[in-house]
Amino acid sequence: MNHSSYTSNNSSISSSSSSSTSNNSNTSSEFEPDQGLIGSLFREEGHVYSLAAAGNFLYTGSESKNVRVWKNFKEFSGFKSTSGMVKAIVVFNEKIFTGHQDGKIRVWTFLDDKRGRYNRVGNLPETKHLLLKSLSPRNYVEVRRKRYAPWIKHYDTVSCMNVDADHGLLYSGSWDKTLKIWRISDSKCLESIPAHDDAVNSSVLSSDGMVFTGSADGTVKAWRREFVGKRTEHFLVEILLKQDHAVTALVASPAAVYAGLSDGLVRFWEVEKRFMAYGGVMRGHKMAVLCLVVAGNLVMSGSADKSICVWRRGGGGQHECAVVLTGHGGPVKCLAVEKETLAEEEEEEEEGGKGQRRWIVYSGSLDKSVKIWRVFE
Question: Which of 12, 180, 311, 374 has the fewest beta carbons closer than 10 A?
Answer without folding.
Answer: 12
